[in-house]
């Protein structure tokens, strides 16, 4: 009995020692693997090495390397635009972005962009209500900026949003920006200095904003754009246009006033002297004063509409007050005189060369005979 119990005890001790040895070897292997920098691989929980930030952006959006296009249209990217490091990774990975489309992405806030060669930035059809100060400062080559169809309010759109880098010639300009689209937001007024950083601005769109009236602040802002060529003020519920709105931008050529509440043709148009295209469609204009011509006499009493229907081509009046239409008789007389003078001059020349047929000679028989004969030339003698 005693021997059996002792044998059983020995057996349990050997089993415990063997188990401890195996556990030690397994643990030491784990430790050595960790010290070597390799995690123990678990195929069920193993994940691949994370891809680069640039790859992430181009996986969720469309990147066209040869055209420099980054297109995230209709991709839900979150409430805030990409962080700086993600944008910078596009350049570091060989994609020189020039055209950026973040259309219908659900953006609510735009943060500052890093230095990029972007020339076209489309942020339309989002829910943007906030734009960080100096958001576009580093986009020094930006030419077209579309922030239409968002939720921008007058208070959130201040001049510093468009501030550029310091310049000795101009006040922190975005010197390349030519086109700015702010249509379909919630703007009721404009900061008077809103465009002070945009010296090259040529095209401004404010359509579908509930202005109702262009107040003094907005008038100052628009009138300050010296190079303005195209202005869209359609569907803004405007009842009138300030008289001197177009006094400063004398190069304005395209003006869209469609879909407002204008009851007469705005007097402000008299200052838009370079205007080439104008739309007053969908306005409740009840009457238009039809101007008629007093002069010239051929057009007296005719309206401009009549002249257009007759395809009449007008010309500027002569500075000296001369009327070319009265010069017909004089020109005809000059023409007849020239036509008569040519044969008369030729006849006189012939008579002179022939010695006047003796009419103005000495009257002697010899002189009379010589009038009918001419001296033989040297060639005829041979």
Strand order of the largest sheet: 1-2-3-5-7-8-9-10-11-12
Report the uncertain regions.
Answer: 1-5, 14-54
The helix/strand class is: alpha/beta
Q: What Rg is obtained from the alpha carbons, in whole angstroms?
A: 45 Å
Mean pLDDT: 81
Beta-strand content estimate: 5-15%
Structure description:
With 382 residues, the protein is of the alpha/beta class. Helix content is 26%, strand content 9%. It has eight helices and twelve strands. The chain has helices at residues 2-35, 53-60, 84-92, 216-223, 304-309, 328-353, 365-370, 378-381; strands at residues 62-64, 69-71, 99-101, 109-110, 120-122, 130-131, 144-146, 179-181, 203-205, 230-232, 254-256, 277-279. The strands form two sheets. It has a ten-stranded mixed sheet with strand order 1-2-3-5-7-8-9-10-11-12, covered by helices on one side. The protein has a two-stranded parallel ribbon with strand order 4-6. Strand 1 (62-64) and strand 2 (69-71) form a beta hairpin. Helix 2 crosses helix 3. The longest helix has 34 residues, at 2-35. Keywords: Leucine-rich repeat, Membrane, Repeat, Signal, Transmembrane, Transmembrane helix. This is Leucine rich immune protein (Coil-less). The chain crosses the membrane at residues 329-352.
Topology:
Blueprint: H1 2-35, H2 53-60, E1 62-64, E2 69-71, H3 84-92, E3 99-101, E4 109-110, E5 120-122, E6 130-131, E7 144-146, E8 179-181, E9 203-205, H4 216-223, E10 230-232, E11 254-256, E12 277-279, H5 304-309, H6 328-353, H7 365-370, H8 378-381
Parallel strand pairs: 2-3, 3-5, 4-6, 5-7, 7-8, 8-9, 9-10, 10-11, 11-12
Antiparallel strand pairs: 1-2
Helix pairs in contact: 2-3
